[in-house]
Amino acid sequence: MRTISFVKGHGTKNDFVLVPALDGTPELTAEETAFLADRRGGVGGDGVIRVVPVEHAPADVRAIAGEARWFMDYRNQDGSVGEMCGNGTRVFAKYLLDNHLESGRDFDIATRAGVKRMTVVDGGFEVDLGVWRLAREPEAAERGSDSVVQAVGAADPLPALSIDLGNPHTVVALPPEFDLSTLDLAHQPRVDPAPESGTNVEFVRAIGPGHIAMRVHERGVGETQSCGTGAAAAAIATWWWAGQPADQLDWRVDVPGGRLGIRIEGERVLLSGPAEIVATGTVELPV
Ligand SMILES: N[C@@H](CCC[C@H](N)C(=O)O)C(=O)O
Fold it and tell me: In terms of pLDDT, which residue wins out, 151 or 181?
């Protein structure tokens, strides 16, 4: 039996079990990760994040880490590895500051999707998510969609646009009359064509200029109360569908767990929102 320390935190109720691995240990298997994330048998979270000094990170992360001193080792609830987690970066940054592992208003953290700049702002943190990309052929994106998504609760397959933020997203625009709460996201939405490595699927309803509401089905998790990279993808897709208006670069994204801010700066996109630490403890990993 191994006893490890954990910290529980969330960003707009996208919740994480943080595991400090300040000397590079503990390592976690996929099974141990899924145990920690299990809401009944374990601690419970949408994901598990190891806090790892860059010198103990994998070689490919060390190679790109630059000035970053800490590596956010993110795993989904089912134990699979995720390249990036927007809400997770803010909770990670709060843990680093609270524990004097970082200081100052700005610092970098390393992720599998590159180095992300964190900035302390009113009410939380802003993270520069970096360069966004249309994930599929530009011709399809010009038409506004590159795939279709069938969700339980929607009569017909709905057109969708794929956005790459270091992790994959498929954004579905719902017609204005569609009630977002009627979707059944207990079931995985069917994406056609299906992306090889899976995708996070965001369902979006326009509220007003620069303002959308979103629900998300996350790869490796299921429905979550919020997804930071998903909110960025949803805002970018909505802005894209609107013809990329120059006066609509700031977005509010309402998610079941709260509200996130998105800023589009040319090729880059920034996410802002709160970060909370709610508990610390120890847990015995099963053998
Ligand atoms: N909730 C996260 C995204 C987590 C990773 C995702 N499930 C994936 O597999 O890509 C966020 O806030 O961005």
Answer: 181
CB-based burial label for 62 (10 Å; 0-12, 13-18, 19+): middle
Residue range 161-213, pLDDT digits in tens: 999 999 999 999 998 888 999 999 999 999 999 999 999 999 999 999 999 99
Q: Contact 105/74 with Cβ under 8 angstroms?
A: no
With b for 16 or more beta-carbon neighbours within 10 A and e for fewer, the 124-145 pattern comes to: bbbbbbbebebbbeeeebeeeb
- Whether residue 197 is found in the same domain as residue 260: yes
Q: How far apart are the first and last CA of the chain?
A: 6
For ligand 1, is residue 87 a contact (CB within 6 Å)?
yes
Predicted confidence (pLDDT) at residue 263 exceeds the cutoff of 90: yes
Pocket test for ligand 1, best of 16, 80, 84 (most atoms within 8 A of CB): 84
185: CATH: 3.10.310.10
What six digits make up the tokens of 196? 């090889």
Which residue type occupies 113?
A
Mean pLDDT, the chain, as a whole number?
96
Structural domain harbouring 110: 2-130+274-285
Taken in order 161, 211, 230, 226, the sign of the CA dihedral is: negative
Same-domain pairing of 215 and 121: no
pTM for this prediction: 0.97
Is 85 part of the annotated catalytic residue set?
yes
Q: Is 220 touching ligand 1 by the criterion CB < 6 Å?
A: yes
- The pLDDT tens digits of the residues spanning 181-191 come to 999 999 999 99
- Domain check: are 168 and 60 in the same one? no
